[in-house]
Amino acid sequence: MELWGRMLWALLSGPGRRGSTRGWAFSSWQPQPPLAGLSSAIELVSHWTGVFEKRGIPEARESSEYIVAHVLGAKTFQSLRPALWTQPLTSQQLQCIRELSSRRLQSCPLCRMPVQYILGEWDFQGLSLRMVPPVFIPRPETEELVEWVLEEVAQRSHAVGSPGSPLILEVGCGSGAISLSLLSQLPQSRVIAVDKREAAISLTHENAQRLRLQDRIWIIHLDMTSERSWTHLPWGPMDLIVSNPPYVFHQDMEQLAPEIRSYEDPAALDGGEEGMDIITHILALAPRLLKDSGSIFLEVDPRHPELVSSWLQSRPDLYLNLVAVRRDFCGRPRFLHIRRSGP
């Protein structure tokens, strides 16, 4: 996603990142029909911007622009043809805008649904993905994780002189954003996507079907902390393991924005006392799942690179080395590349 899209996600979703503490103003607003005479996109944006501002919704104009653009079939208001800005909307479109805006303005701040769930879809790496609560909403940073994996696959393919056709395991697939993005950009790849939540498995299936990528993905309901579950994977060994695991420090969970706590599955966020519970499970299993010189790519908390490095040093029997740390677009150490380097 281009920078504007990343910024827009942060603006509209409220939390921005897993550890954000951004609050919300209380609203006693009750849904009302648009003012008489409002008919064009520009007029509707102006009207709802005023309502959002009055009721304490952050980034009021961006919220209203995105809702209006969605109803008109566009990703952003700026991408609409100028002729559509002033063209009268149908009564059905006006009603849809009112209903979506009303959901953004429910009476209790703890009930304000993220725009991604309100619209029922979100763009990730150019793919339009269905979004439903409580499945974790993919963040902009995760697009950078995908880009790093693609870079690594391209470099390896160039080194061996053949097109990239990796076998990839994603741990904790959620909406399928990572897996489906990789499949769409690596046409010879195959993916096993696992998640312990039925809602995530169902949504990944739906998104794979929508994008016609179902033939190259195996979606498995599996709790990765259960050792015996991994003995029945249909393919292997893996070239790559990719994961955006739960990594919020447990003590930070109460500081998350109200929208996250109200709608997103806490199990997709809470990583335990130091945010490392699932990360260490992945690393402990990796030598049994990876090919020799296979790689693990993880999205983590900025405090984790040092913690992961220390943990790996304490487990030389795993033959895993932290080979690179990459910063996100805000300059925070966010992504890890770990490679298997032994038997």
- Structural class label: alpha/beta
Count of individual beta strands:
9
What Rg do the Cα atoms give?
21 Å
Question: Which residues sit in consecutive blocks of at least 5 with pLDDT less than 50?
Answer: 1-17, 19-36
Beta-strand share of residues: 15-25%
Order of SSEs? HHHHHHEEHEHEHEEHHEHEE
Number of helices: 12
Strand order of the largest sheet: 5-4-3-6-7-9-8
Helix content: 25-40%
Shape: elongated
N→C terminal distance: 38 Å
- Main sheet, how many strands, which sense, barrel? 7 strands, mixed
What is the mean predicted local confidence, pLDDT?
A: 85
Written overview of the protein:
The chain is α/β, with parallel strands linked by helices. Helices cover 39% and strands 16% of the residues. A 7-stranded mixed beta sheet has the order 5-4-3-6-7-9-8, sandwiched between helices. It has a two-stranded antiparallel ribbon with strand order 1-2. The protein is elongated.
